[in-house]
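Weekly puzzle thread! Below is a chain. First person to post its structure in token form gets bragging rights.
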Amino acid sequence: MSRATPCRIIHSMTTSSHPTLAATAADEDLLWRQLEQRDASASFVYAVITTGVFCRPGCASRFPLRHNVRFFSNPGEASAAGFRPCQRCRPQQPPVTHLVEQVCALLHQHHTQGNAGTLPLARLAQMTGHSPHTIQRAFQSALGVSPAQFLRRLRAQSFASELTRTGQSITDAIYAAGYSSSSRAYSGYPLGLTPGSLRRGAAAEQIEYAIEPSDFDQNSAFIPGHALTARTQRGLCWLAFGDSPQELLDDLARQMHAATLVLSATLGTTLRSILDVARAGRALPSLPLDLRGTAFQLRVWNLLQKIPAGETRSYRQLAQELGQPQASRAVARACATNSVALLVPCHRVVAVNGALSGYRWGTERKRALLAAEKSGS
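Winning reply:
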């Protein structure tokens, strides 16, 4: 149910002490479709009569049978009907996406006002009316980082921007970005670069890389090619497919234009393992990643990592899960800018009609990956 559509649900009590839905069939069908899609933006809650528990539609709990479900306009109605709140999704609290957006706005405001230091969880709790634990848990779940890490990322992005200004000294850039001291800037940049190194275009940083053949042979379709992966001190920052090793290396060099690229045998072993798992259609390993993007991109990439192997989602479904049902195109753009293939599985996102749609590394490779996962799941 979108925020613009009021919930027209009326409940009455039966002799079994469970509510029965006294709404139109169209209402019930709409609510059920939103539940099927795990629409995190929906404002209603649903209860399961076999468990006596009520949840929000985006809850990750086991999916119920339709005839066991009762719908309510709000948590208070469900509680009044004798159901207890789910301990996983905590439906009596606002939807996670709304809380995360609220905290993001506060962090952006704190940063743009030039405040040095962090915005403590205790202060965020006072400003939002939620406990520090709830804020930390919701933020980590939605973005994969804590509020403090998110604020450091904002500050680091500003720092990088300030350093590129003509005539801007390193000291001026440090304080313009909101750092309280030079030591904070030296320790706070996500890639572990010193400010001087960053000023010179990351010339002093070493980024390891490896290239391996990435041939796929699925359903009589042979797809030749190579894959390149790269990692910083924080984790893998690049995994791309291409026709030739030189093409891939040139592309990486353009992106990391002033860094020192170092061929790594150990990273080559890791890449071969990732490709072998992908060809077999098994669940990919969880490895440290160095993902850099906007808050929205990070949310999309984090959500992509939660799609199980063998399953797909549409851009619309992802937008709904993010609590922004009108953002399908923005989700598609975030998928297109993903720089870590396979481990951030943008190949599992399809058009609403099931068509493969686009893929940064070719639709035939996307088809092969999905076919392998379907047969391996």
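Puzzle host: Confirmed. Bonus trivia for everyone else. The domain at 206-280 is CATH 3.30.160 (Double Stranded RNA Binding Domain).
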